[in-house]
């Protein structure tokens, strides 16, 4: 009788824990559904076509940054520099379009729009590589390394124009520098190009994470770096690649924003890193590394985007918006830790049932 009761209690505990764990894994979908329902009631015209298109463009920018951030966090790192990379890369693109490169010998090199985009992306990747070198070769903590590049990139952006804006990036036909605005304001099949760019980056990132050895190595490094190194994984190379990818994503966002505004400002991208971290963590990426998904991050970006735009439409102060975003990040981390403990409990109960 006692043994039967114990087995029954164990089965009940396992079922209850499994249900709770399932709900925690769906927390991002539940949060997205909740905020959509709330703002559709509280904010007039929230679900209008114009607002949905505008919100999707905002979400796309944050999601692109958050995808790069996800890979970094999965390896156990952090990238605080992405907001500054956004601003610097926007200034690089604007400067190349307006002024080209002065060789100081009476000659100036101008680049067409495609070349400007490629150069700007290369700058973002290079800054990511600098982060990777600081972390892997000089053993600087990721927080400190990327905090340093945050200030350096922002300072260079300010120095490039003495803090002024590069306006009117229309370009000149005779120099082949026209057409830059298509990247930020163009559409394809009725959707903004920024959304298609997000789809492309998300598809590639998801494939890499799920189907390639590099993806498995990224998760292995985050799960246990020492064990990954002993198993033959080139940990330094993996970390270099994820920081370079994060820089690439930030440069992409810098291009889209400057193209949409047809102007570049050195302060662009301030606090963008916080939204990216919030989206990744809310989407299930563990701050301790080893766990995360591209799909979850995109849903997390939608939650942050809907929350931000909904609060704006309700007339909530930007100061309160910052407070609410901070609470969301803290809550997401607390739930993530609770999910981890619950997973351990479910695993132990499952083992007990098997025995």
Automatic annotation (TrEMBL):
Its main location: membrane. It is found in: Cell membrane. This is Permease component of ribose/xylose/arabinose/galactoside ABC-type transporter. Keywords: Cell inner membrane, Cell membrane, Membrane, Transmembrane, Transmembrane helix, Transport. GO terms for molecular function: transmembrane transporter activity. The lineage of its organism: Bacteria, Pseudomonadati, Pseudomonadota, Alphaproteobacteria, Hyphomicrobiales. The chain crosses the membrane at residues 29-47, 59-78, 85-101, 107-128, 140-160, 180-209, 240-258. It comes from the Bacteria. It is a multi-pass membrane protein. It comes from Microvirga lotononidis. InterPro entries: ABC_transp_permease. GO terms for cellular component: plasma membrane.
């Amino acid at each position: 009788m006692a043994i039967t009761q114990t087995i029954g209690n164990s089965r009940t505990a396992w079922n209850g824990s499994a249900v709770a764990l399932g709900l925690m894994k769906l927390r991002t979908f539940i949060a997205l559904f909740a905020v959509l329902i709330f703002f559709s009631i509280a904010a007039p015209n929230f679900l209008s076509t114009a607002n949905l298109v505008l919100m999707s463009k905002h979400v796309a920018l944050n999601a692109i940054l958050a995808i790069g951030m996800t890979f970094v966090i999965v390896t156990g790192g952090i990238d605080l520099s992405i907001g500054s990379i956004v601003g610097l890369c926007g200034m690089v693109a604007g400067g190349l379009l307006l002024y080209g490169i002065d060789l100081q010998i009476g000659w100036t090199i101008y680049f067409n729009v495609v070349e400007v985009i490629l150069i700007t992306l290369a700058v973002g990747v290079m800054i990511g590589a600098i982060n990777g070198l600081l972390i892997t070769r000089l053993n600087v903590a990721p927080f400190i390394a990327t905090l340093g590049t945050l200030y350096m990139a922002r300072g260079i952006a300010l120095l490039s124009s003495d803090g002024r804006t590069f306006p009117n990036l229309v370009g000149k036909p005779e120099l082949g520098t026209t057409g830059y605005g298509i990247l930020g304001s163009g559409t394809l099949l009725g959707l903004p190009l920024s959304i298609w760019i997000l789809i492309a980056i998300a598809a590639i990132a998801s494939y890499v994470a799920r189907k390639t050895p590099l993806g498995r190595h990224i998760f292995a490094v985050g799960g246990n770096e020492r064990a990954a190194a002993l198993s033959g994984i080139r940990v330094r190379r993996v970390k270099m690649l994820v920081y370079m990818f994060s820089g690439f994503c930030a440069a992409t966002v810098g291009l889209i924003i400057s193209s949409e505004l047809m102007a570049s400002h050195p302060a662009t991208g301030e606090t963008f890193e916080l939204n990216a971290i919030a989206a990744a963590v809310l989407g299930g990426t563990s701050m301790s590394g080893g766990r995360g998904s591209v799909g979850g991050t995109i849903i997390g970006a939608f939650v942050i985007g809907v929350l931000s735009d909904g609060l704006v439409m309700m007339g909530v102060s930007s100061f309160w918006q910052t407070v609410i975003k901070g609470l969301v990040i803290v809550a997401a981390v607390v739930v993530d830790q609770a999910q981890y403990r619950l997973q351990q409990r479910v695993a132990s109960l499952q083992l007990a049932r098997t025995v």
